């Protein structure tokens, strides 16, 4: 199984969710390609809806921008109406796939075991899974953030080899910050990311956490991105609404590319 994902790169991944038809997605991709022609110092990916993948792929081909999907089924094929498998995504040119997003965990009642199966299905086809973890507002207010993050990470990475673990990306997405306009403070993001790294060290093996890319997700925009990326533990972002406008997504990618010293000086 080939592993081309570099060790702990900075990454900005745009999650378009249920937005943009196939023609609209291709147009947005072309606009983004123009803005990113002078390549930023971070990896960039976009995750359109399934219906737009085939249209977006040609616009990204040869540009260095990665194509990703928003979900995947754990089986390679079978009687699963409405589902999409990892081989199907690979055949369209996808390199990444989001698994365990809170909108699936809480909106579709997806449990930790299902997230783990999807993660492994993605790895089995050479896709880089972006594994989402995060607590709800009620869990944070009850002081259960650490408990939730450890449980979700343990379920996803238990019995996974270090090589496979290093071929993944983690996205810390506090549920209370997704689509709400609220955003975790840089300190809250730093603490959560450090906890996830320590958990990976314990579950997979020492040194794993330090080498895995961990993104922050939750109402990231050009106005707050720099403060988040100034934190040593934050390697980039999984961007929702702000990725639907090429100019705003480009600004976030530029911030993710800047040296942390420069970002800290600008606070």
UniProtKB/TrEMBL annotation:
Reaction(s) catalysed by this chain, per the record, are: D-glyceraldehyde 3-phosphate = dihydroxyacetone phosphate
Classify the main location. Answer: cytoplasm
As for subcellular location, the record says: Cytoplasm
Cellular component (GO) terms are:
cytosol
A Pfam family this chain is assigned to? TIM
- Please tell me where substrate binds in this chain: 15-17, 179, 219, 240-241
Pathway field of the UniProt record reads: Carbohydrate degradation; glycolysis; D-glyceraldehyde 3-phosphate from glycerone phosphate: step 1/1; Carbohydrate biosynthesis; gluconeogenesis
The record's section on InterPro entries has: Aldolase_TIM, TIM_sf, TrioseP_Isoase_bac/euk, Triosephosphate_isomerase, Triosephosphate_isomerase_AS
Provide the E.C. number(s) assigned to this enzyme.
Answer: 5.3.1.1
Name of this protein = Triosephosphate isomerase
**Which species expresses this protein natively?**
Eiseniibacteriota bacterium
User: Gene symbol?
Assistant: tpiA
């Amino acid at each position: 199984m080939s592993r081309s994902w570099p060790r702990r790169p900075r990454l900005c991944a745009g999650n378009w969710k249920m937005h943009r038809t196939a023609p609209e997605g291709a147009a947005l991709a072309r606009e983004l390609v123009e803005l990113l022609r002078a390549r930023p110092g971070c990896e960039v990916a976009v995750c359109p809806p399934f219906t737009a993948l085939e249209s977006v792929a040609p616009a990204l081909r040869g540009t260095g921008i990665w194509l990703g999907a928003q979900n995947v089924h754990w089986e390679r094929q079978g009687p699963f109406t409405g589902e999409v498998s990892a081989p199907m995504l690979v055949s369209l040119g996808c390199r990444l796939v989001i698994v365990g997003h809170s909108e699936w965990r809480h909106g579709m009642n997806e449990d930790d075991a299902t997230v783990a199966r999807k993660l492994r299905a993605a790895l089995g086809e050479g896709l880089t899974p972006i594994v989402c973890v995060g607590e709800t507002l009620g869990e944070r207010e009850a002081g259960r953030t650490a408990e939730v993050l450890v449980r979700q990470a343990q379920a996803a990475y238990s019995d996974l080899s270090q090589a496979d673990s290093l071929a993944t990306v983690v996205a810390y997405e506090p549920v209370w910050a997704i689509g709400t306009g609220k955003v975790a403070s840089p300190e809250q993001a730093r603490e959560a990311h450090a906890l996830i790294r320590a958990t990976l060290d314990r579950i997979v093996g020492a040194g794993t956490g330090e080498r895995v890319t961990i993104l922050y997700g939750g109402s990231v925009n050009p106005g707050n991105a720099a403060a988040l990326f100034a934190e040593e533990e934050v390697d980039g972002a999984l961007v929702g609404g702000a990725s639907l406008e090429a100019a705003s997504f480009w600004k976030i990618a530029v911030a993710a590319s800047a040296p942390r010293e420069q970002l800290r000086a600008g606070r």
